[in-house]
Structure formats: C-alpha cells, structure tokens
C-alpha cells in the first residue's frame, strides 16, 4: 500500500488550495457559537465552526457519514466481505480510508495478514494493565494498555534520530498499523481479565480482523463474527470534530506519536456524552425492563422517559452534535437485528423507543435532534449474542476507532498539518468586544 506518490499529489493539492484560495471565508463566528443562551449559561462547544481538515470521512447532518464519499449502505455493497452478501470486512474500510479506493478481496486479505503479523503485544503491556485493580473501568484498562504500547513507537525513535519532516508519515504509518493490529488483543485481554477470571484466548490467524477480535473475546458464532465486522466498520470514523477524533488529531498535532495520541482519544471516548453512551443505553434499557417488565405498554414507556428527563438526565442513545436525522449507523444495526434477531425482547423494546422517544424530545423544545444515534442500538445486539457486560461496550468502540483516527494521523503527517492552536478569550474580552461592535 505504498503511498508516496499519492501523498505528493495530495500535498500539491493542499498547497494549491492554500495559495489560490487562502483568503476565502468559510463562515462567520458569532458569540452564540462560543456561548449559547440556556438556563445555566454553557459554552457552545464551537458547533458549526469549520476548522479542521479530515480527509477520511465527512458527516452530513441529514444523510449521515460518508467514508471517502461512500455511505454506509454503499460500503456494505462495495467493500469485500467474508462471505457472499455478508457484512464488510473492517480491513477493507481501513484500506478505503487510507487510500480513498475500494480494495479487492485479495488486497483486503493481504492487509489482514499484514495486521496479523503485527499483532503480538509485549508482556509489559499486560503487566501495566495488571497493576490496576480488576474493578478499574474497562476504558481505563484499555487506555493504560495503549499507553504502555507506546514504548515501541517507531515515530518517537525516528524523531529522536532527526528524521526530516517530509518523512514523518513513514514511522507514523508503521506505528498506526501496529496499533490497529494490537489494540484488539489488548481489548480482549481487558475483557477476559475482568469477566473471565483472566483466562485469555490466543488469536487465530485464520480469521479476519473482526472475527478474530470476537474469537479472542470468547464469541465464536458465525453471526457474532458478522456483527463484529459490521460493528468495527461503522464505529471506525465519524469525521474529525467529535471528541475522540478531535483529541487524537489535536494531540498528534504536537507531533506526539500515534500511541500517545490514540490513548488521549480513548480518554475522550470514555465520556458519557460520547462513547460511554453505549454502556449507558443498555443499562438504561435494562432499568426500564426492571421497572415495567418486558411487555410494557407505550404509555408506561413514555412515563419512564419523562421520569428520566425530569430527574435531570439525558435519554441515552438519542440526539447528536451534528446529525439531524436518524443515524444510518442505527439503521444498519436495525436491519441486522431484523434479519437475525427479530424476536429478541430487547430489540422489540428498542423499536418501541424509536417510536416513543423522538416526540417527547421534540416536545422538550430544545433538543436539536430527537432521533436515535449509533449507541441506541449496539448494546442489544451484543447482549443478544452473550456479550452482556455493558460496562465493557465502549472498549469495542475504542478498538474500532483506532482505524479511523490512525488513518487520519497518517494523512496529518503526510500533509504536514500544523500544530493546532485556536485562540481563546475571557468573558471580559467577549463583553468588551461586543460593546465595541454594538
Ligand atoms: C449527543 C449529545 C451530547 C449532543 O449534544 P448537543 O450537541 O449539545 O445537543 P443539542 O444541541 O440538541 O442540545 C440542546 C439541549 O438538549 C438536550 N438534549 C440533547 N439530547 C438529549 C437527550 N438525548 N436527552 C435529553 N436531553 C437532550 C441537551 O442536554 C441540551 O440541553 P441544555 O441546553 O439544557 O444543556 C446529546 O444529544 C446527548 O446528551 N445525547 C445523549 C447521550 C448520547 O446518546 N451520546 C452519544 C452520542 S453519539
């Protein structure tokens, strides 16, 4: 997958863009974007400010994510699968994100082998995780493992030896591929350590990336392998502004290596408004069942949703910072459920929530997107196949995100992107500025 000529071409494209259109305005920044009116004034979180270059994917508020121009249904159709009409292989998506091209099955198989050859994890990584109490959150254990992998960074070694800027992408590529290969091993170790008395399962080199991850976790049914391929593919990337992707990109802009950058990204993913929402959704759904039973009426469900909102909590799995329609990642998981587990009681509950929650959130009057997101669905699928430990779910998200974040990190270095350093101001500065502009 040699990329030097493709990199040169993209570098030239970026240079031309800058020299010919460097002064074209991308939008206006208003005080509202920095500080929005609300019961308790909160920072607006830079919504709607265009400020990042992210080549691997683009999120349309109405249509959802496109990976290098391909929607999720297009990826399902075009990317190679393990079996006829099966779910896309995550290695195929990695190829697509890195090169912008749809790979052949042969290319995907070669990439699978390449990842397998890099998957061995040094013993000190497991020792670092073992130093934590077993009760530590699975995301804390995963991030610790990733940080411990950092000692092998090729980028750091090359930088220490004075590698020229034009070659930064090469050791970044080496680290990224190794990290993507190793992170499922670390993730599976965390799962087996916490929930299976530390009895680990060795990797199986006859399996592809998604199936092997499922195997190391202890789930070997062909349907679970398919689910894992789909899961990893759709969770891999969601453009650059979300907390984990942006954190990885920001930290890497200081020329921190991919391990340091990705460990930081994982810490952002571990927040309940971001990746932890998948854990929250299943726990919340189970609490609904505990209170109302499996065959609850829509009225009971509505009451429970209102009760959650009135206690000051959000309804997990609904809403999004950018999307304004049902998340296509939700829809493809729904299609998977309709095909493989239409009678699962929790899936039926998720379907009922799809009818009940959006009108309630709309009635609140402040929620910009009342529709379900990716996290509203993933837990019930995993739960169906026996992966019932909700606290672990964000680790699956984290493993998947290595593919998107690391692909972009390679492009960051190839394009020579700058150190990120936006301007911040104080409240007093904003007040004075507004007075002067009035
Ligand atoms: C994803 C999320 C963090 C996006 O936040 P956002 O961009 O600030 O969303 P909005 O602009 O629509 O928020 C406006 C208001 O609606 C509220 N809101 C948004 N989604 C909500 C939900 N699912 N339940 C209850 N209230 C919600 C916000 O908390 C905010 O209230 P505030 O003004 O009192 O602070 C938010 O929708 C959320 O908390 N969802 C639940 C958690 C979740 O599923 N996260 C996974 C995302 S993939």
Unreliable residue runs: 35-42
The level of helicity is 55-70%
Mean pLDDT: 94
* Helix/strand order, N-terminal first: HHEEEEEHHHHHHHHHHHHHHHHHH
Instruction: Indicate the proportion of strand residues.
Output: under 5%
**CATH homologous superfamily title of the domain at 105-273 and 402-415:** Citrate Synthase, domain 1
Query: What's the CATH topology label of the domain at 105-273 and 402-415?
Result: Citrate Synthase, domain 1
Tally of alpha and pi helices: 20
**What's the shape?**
globular
GO molecular function, one term: acyltransferase activity, acyl groups converted into alkyl on transfer
Organism: Actinidia rufa
Pfam families: Citrate_synt (PF00285)
Protein name: Citrate synthase
Compact summary:
The protein is mainly alpha-helical and 438 residues long. Helices cover 58% and strands 3% of the residues.
Commentary on this structure:
By secondary structure, the protein is mainly α. It has a domain at 105-273 and 402-415: Citrate Synthase, domain 1. The chain contains 20 helices and 5 strands. The strands form 2 sheets. A 3-stranded antiparallel beta sheet has the order 3-4-5. Strands 1-2 form a two-stranded antiparallel ribbon. Helix 6 runs antiparallel to helix 7 (138-149). The longest helix is centred in the middle third of the chain and has 27 residues, at 169-195. It starts with a helix and ends with a helix. The model is unreliable at 35-42 (pLDDT under 50). Bound molecules: coenzyme A. Coenzyme A (COA) is lined by residues 38-39, 42, 273, 277, 309, 314-321, 361, 366-369, 373-375. Coenzyme A binds at residues 38-39, 42, 273, 277, 309, 314-321, 361, 366-369, 373-375. Keywords: Transferase. InterPro entries: Citrate_synth-like_lrg_a-sub, Citrate_synth-like_sm_a-sub, Citrate_synthase, Citrate_synthase_AS, Citrate_synthase_euk, Citrate_synthase_sf. Belongs to the citrate synthase family. This is Citrate synthase.
């Amino acid at each position: 997958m040699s990329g030097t000529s493709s990199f040169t071409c993209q570098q030239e494209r970026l240079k031309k863009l800058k020299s010919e259109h460097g002064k074209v305005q991308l939008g206006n920044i208003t005080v509202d974007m920095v500080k929005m009116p609300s019961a308790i004034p909160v920072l607006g979180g830079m919504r709607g400010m265009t400020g990042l270059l992210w080549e691997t994917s683009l999120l349309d508020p109405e249509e959802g994510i496109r990976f290098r121009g391909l929607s999720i249904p297009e990826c399902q159709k075009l990317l190679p699968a393990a079996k006829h009409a099966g779910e896309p292989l995550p290695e195929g998506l990695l190829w697509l994100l890195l090169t912008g091209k749809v790979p052949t099955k042969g290319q995907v198989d070669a990439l699978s082998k390449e990842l397998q050859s890099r998957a061995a994890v040094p013993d000190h990584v497991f020792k670092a995780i073992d130093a934590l109490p077993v009760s530590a959150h699975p995301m804390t254990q995963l991030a610790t493992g990733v940080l411990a992998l950092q000692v092998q960074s090729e980028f750091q070694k090359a930088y220490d030896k004075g590698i020229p800027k034009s070659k930064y992408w090469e050791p970044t590529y080496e680290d990224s591929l190794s990290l993507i290969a190793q992170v499922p091993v670390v993730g599976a170790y965390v799962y087996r350590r916490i929930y299976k008395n530390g009895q680990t399962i060795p990797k199986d080199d006859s399996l592809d990336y998604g199936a092997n991850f499922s195997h190391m976790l202890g789930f070997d049914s062909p349907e679970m392998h398919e689910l894992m391929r789909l899961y990893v593919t759709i969770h891999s990337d969601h453009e650059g502004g979300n907390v984990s992707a942006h954190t990885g990109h920001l930290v890497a802009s200081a020329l921190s290596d991919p391990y340091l950058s990705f460990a930081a990204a994982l810490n952002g993913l571990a927040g309940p408004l971001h990746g932890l929402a998948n854990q929250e959704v299943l726990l919340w759904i189970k609490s609904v069942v505990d209170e109302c039973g499996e065959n609850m009426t829509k009225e009971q469900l509505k009451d429970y949703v209102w009760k959650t909102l009135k206690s000051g909590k959000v309804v997990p799995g609904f809403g999004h910072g950018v999307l304004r329609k049902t998340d296509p990642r939700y829809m493809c998981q729904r299609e998977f459920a309709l095909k493989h587990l239409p009678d699962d009681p929790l899936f039926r509950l998720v379907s009922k929530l799809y009818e009940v929650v959006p009108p309630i959130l709309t009635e609140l009057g402040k929620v910009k997107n009342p529709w379900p997101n990716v996290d509203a669905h993933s837990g019930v699928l995993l739960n169906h196949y026996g992966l019932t430990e909700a606290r672990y779910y964000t680790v699956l998200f984290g493993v998947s995100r290595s593919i998107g974040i690391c692909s972009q990190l390679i492009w960051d270095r190839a394009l020579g992107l700058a150190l990120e350093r936006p301007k911040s101001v104080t409240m007093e500065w904003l007040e004075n500025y507004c007075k002067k502009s009035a």
